[in-house]
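User: Please fill in residues for this 368-position structure.
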């Protein structure tokens, strides 16, 4: 029976917690009688009595000239400050900034950073079913239509508040980039607000906490961005692990090359796995130029390399230094093998290498 009462008590607390409206949860608990109190007066000490020592240790500081003097009692929100959460890889915030803004650094060279952020913003707007009032794609600026929150729709049979509060907000989103183009920011600004506590009450057009609304909507966009990034990374990893079809062909310079049926960002990491599997040691690389500097061992100089690469020593090439050029050719990628002097392999030499290379490139779940 004891457990039954405990469970009932927890359920009752949960129901009571659900009874409070969003507006009520922003208020301090208890009464607000303190707002009627008048400032105390300093004790008057008769002249013929020694004055006690007074301390200013607990003296309240003077109110600043710009401080809202009427923000007390039910007009004072007790919620903790809202913080911008830079959860996307390469994102950060400016400490001390009062603007709801998050900065992003370029981590993917497939497209301009501001374009990537803009696409994620539009994806969020579409997913949430938010209307657009203004959109300037050239300057990366967007103003939403009214985003309406009707608290009455949150009422359930077990709630007792019966709140009919309706809150509407419109936001401006802007993307700004730094001159070097590899860092850009997304900011949110509340441009319009209105609230009705009931159908009969007048509308209020001044929000209690503008920054909170701006930070909350910005964090929603950033969380959407981060989720999509993780999904894309998972898809990309799976594509890298899957086998890729390879054929003989020519690169953009007309030199004999392997043509891989995958875009550059998939073929580039996949090639490094294949090279390691074949016994190549990648000594240096530059993705922006598509160059890899490698050395190939015939398998006799190191028993350790044979543990990790069963194919080592099976290639029809000598142990030497080699360069490999990788180029983006639309939806496919060309891979050109060259000697240490950057002379491309002739067609017959590349053909001899095609068998083991294409076999490893097409192997599903390639691992080292």
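Assistant: Residues filled in for all 368 positions:
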């Amino acid at each position: 029976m004891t457990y039954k009462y405990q469970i009932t008590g927890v359920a009752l607390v949960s129901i009571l917690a659900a009874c409070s409206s969003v507006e009520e949860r922003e208020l301090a608990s208890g009464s607000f009688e303190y707002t009627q109190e008048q400032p105390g007066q300093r004790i008057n000490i008769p002249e013929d009595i020694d004055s006690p020592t007074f301390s200013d240790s607990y003296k309240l500081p003077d109110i600043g000239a710009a401080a809202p003097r009427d923000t007390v009692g039910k007009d004072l929100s007790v919620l903790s400050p809202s913080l911008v959460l830079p959860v996307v890889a390469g994102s950060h915030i400016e400490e001390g900034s009062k603007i709801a803004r998050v900065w992003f650094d370029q981590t993917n060279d497939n497209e301009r950073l501001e374009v990537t952020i803009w696409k994620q913003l539009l994806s969020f707007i579409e997913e949430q079913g938010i209307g657009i009032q203004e959109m300037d794609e050239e300057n990366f600026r967007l103003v939403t239509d009214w985003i309406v929150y009707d608290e009455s729709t949150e009422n359930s049979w077990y709630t007792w508040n019966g709140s009919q509060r309706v809150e509407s907000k419109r936001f401006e989103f802007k993307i700004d980039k730094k001159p070097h183009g590899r860092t850009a920011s997304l900011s949110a600004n509340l441009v319009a607000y209105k609230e009705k506590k009931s159908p009969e009450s007048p509308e209020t057009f001044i929000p209690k906490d503008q920054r909170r609304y701006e930070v909350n909507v910005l964090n929603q966009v950033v969380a959407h961005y981060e989720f999509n990034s993780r999904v894309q990374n998972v898809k990309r990893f799976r594509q890298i692990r899957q086998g890729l079809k390879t054929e003989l062909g020519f690169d953009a310079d007309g030199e004999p090359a392997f043509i891989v049926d995958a875009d550059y960002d998939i073929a580039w990491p996949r090639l490094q796995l294949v090279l390691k599997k074949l016994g190549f040691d990648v000594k240096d690389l530059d993705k922006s130029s598509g160059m890899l500097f490698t050395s190939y061992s015939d398998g006799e100089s190191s028993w350790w390399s044979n543990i990790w690469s069963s194919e080592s020593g099976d290639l029809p090439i000598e142990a030497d230094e080699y360069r490999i050029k990788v180029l983006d050719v639309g939806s496919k990628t060309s891979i050109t093998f060259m000697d240490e002097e950057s002379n491309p392999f002739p067609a017959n030499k590349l053909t001899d290498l095609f068998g083991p290379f294409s076999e490893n490139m097409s192997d599903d779940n390639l691992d080292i």
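For context: The longest helix spans residues 210-241.
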